[in-house]
Here is the input.
Amino acid sequence: MKKVGILVGSLREASFSEKLAENVKDYFPEDYDIEIVEISHLPYYDQDFDSGDGNEPESYRDFRKKIKEKDIFIFITPEYNRSFPAVLKNALDVASRPKADNAWNNKAGGIISQSPGLLGGFGANHHLRQVLTAVNVSVVQQPEVYLSKVADLFDENGKITNEGTVEFLESFVNEVIKLSDRL
Here is the structure.
């Protein structure tokens, strides 16, 4: 059974990214173990925590272990100032250190960026790709997922109503699975 971690780059309650994550969980085959991995509780990364003297926060140890257990990651992010949010960058930093024990190493991933505007989080998507390259997450190149006017995608229960969007996201998930199978 493959294990999938979905990381949501928004802290806002009932955020668009969180709604997308709940929808995307349903697009994986039933035999996949899907978990939305919490990142809001992680203290900002500080290299002093990895000095070897035992002062590493328990939240770091638990998070790193959880990341190592996953085979696939889906990163769902809004765009903040033409980039992705600091909370997501912090999670990437925490699990990539110490460098010799990078928990992200050789994992498959996919990025979904979103925005209420027209650009669909293009800047966030590409900045996140740069960081994922640095931590050795292989990211699906096509299709790229930039969801614009995201506020219009959901019904009152948080489900995506546009069948074309659902089909597109299902094809994206299938490509992430194929990438994982190749790794």
Remarks:
- Residues 3-182 form a domain with the Rossmann fold fold (CATH 3.40.50.360).
- The beta strands are 3-8, 33-37, 72-78, 107-114, 137-139, 145-147.
- The longest helix spans residues 163-182.
- The CA atoms of residues 3 and 33 lie 5 Å apart.
